[in-house]
Amino acid sequence: GWQPVGIAGQARAGAPARPGPLRGMRWASCPEHGLSWAGFLRRSPPRSSPSRLALCAAYRCDAWSRRLRTAGYSDSVFQNKIVDQCEKLQLQSAAITKYMAEVLPGKNQSALSAASWAREVVIQRLIFVRNVCENEEQRLLEKVHTEEERTHQSILTQRAHWTESLQKLAALRTYLVDMITNLDDHGLVHAEQEIFERTEAAEGILKPQESEKLNFNQKCVQSPLLHQLWASAVLSLEEVHVDEKTISPLLTLSEDKKTLAFSPKKTKPYPDCPERFDHWPNALGTKAFHKGTHAWRIRVDKSCAYKLGISYGSLQRKGPGNAARLGYNPFSWVFSRYDKEFRFSHNSCHQAVELVKCPAQVGVLVDLDGGEVLFYDPTSCVILHSHRETFTAPIYPVFAVADQSISLVQ
């Protein structure tokens, strides 16, 4: 077999046989002069022996000449290339061997350490979050219990007060009936002062009126932490689509049905239908939500004028009046931006929303059973605004844009 001698002069064990005319030749030293075969092919004899240098430089080594003649080589250029390639292969093999022996074990240990650290971080953070959630749960449940006790005590106090009032009124009525029954006109005139005083006391008993103290305060369970965790858990669960029959002529819908773009001129002729908005740049979603929790996201970073939220299907579609203007009627709840001003609007009541920066996306989350609509920044995990409402009809996602475009995030 063909066993080349390495750079250090060591034969590489197990190397494959060299095909071609060099088959059977060994990568060994000259038996007469100790000159290596590689050196001979390179015409570079060993430097340590002047006599060998002279001899081999003249190429009069009979043993190697016989080998060359047997191999059929008269030109040394090709042989030199073979030697170069063999040396490159050996260097490449040495580099791979070193990489496997030194680098890979270190990488493996580093990966094990990094995975162990990451696993520990996940466990520790989840333990921390779990503890925080448990503490928040306990705090909120205590607030619920306290509010329940307060409401119950207020009801008991009211019950006792009005029971006492009923007794006073009943006693006064009985007294007046007795006076009328048992006294003549002279006696009634004589008892006029007493009757007046008792009647005046009864007039101080007012009629019952509605009191917020008798209602359970739902705000006692408001928690930014709970809102953020809840919003993060359910946001983007819903795939929302724009109802093309409702799109205003001032808007155009992209081919992928996700982007609404504003056009100040009604450039695209839409067929008129009862569902379409004909004045305000509005559009509704296709699907109505009847119960449960629903959420979707809209990319708004390209627009400085938009409205996002929910509305009843009974929202007016035609005309320039407030009945079709989002946030200016009892049928719509929207979060809006105009330039750098943000606000929440419902039934012409506007509440300013102070933000540190403009959100790139806005999430809309509605809990129909719990009676709440929430606007959320999924990027910074910030609750933009929340509003409690008792919804009496199915709601639709609603959109409006008056600058550039907004896009649904699926």
Automatic annotation (TrEMBL):
UniProt cross-references to InterPro entries, sorted A to Z: B30.2/SPRY (IPR001870), B30.2/SPRY_sf (IPR043136), Butyrophylin_SPRY (IPR003879), ConA-like_dom_sf (IPR013320), PRY (IPR006574), SPRY_dom (IPR003877), TRIM/RBCC (IPR050143)
Record GO biological process: cellular response to leukemia inhibitory factor
Region (Disordered): 1-20
Matches recorded under PROSITE patterns: B302_SPRY
Record SUPFAM superfamilies: Concanavalin A-like lectins/glucanases
Pfam family name, one: PRY
Gene3D superfamilies hit by this protein: 2.60.120.920
B30.2/SPRY domain boundaries: 219-410
SMART domains: PRY, SPRY
Protein name: B-box and SPRY domain containing
Organism: Chelonoidis abingdonii
Gene expressing this chain: BSPRY
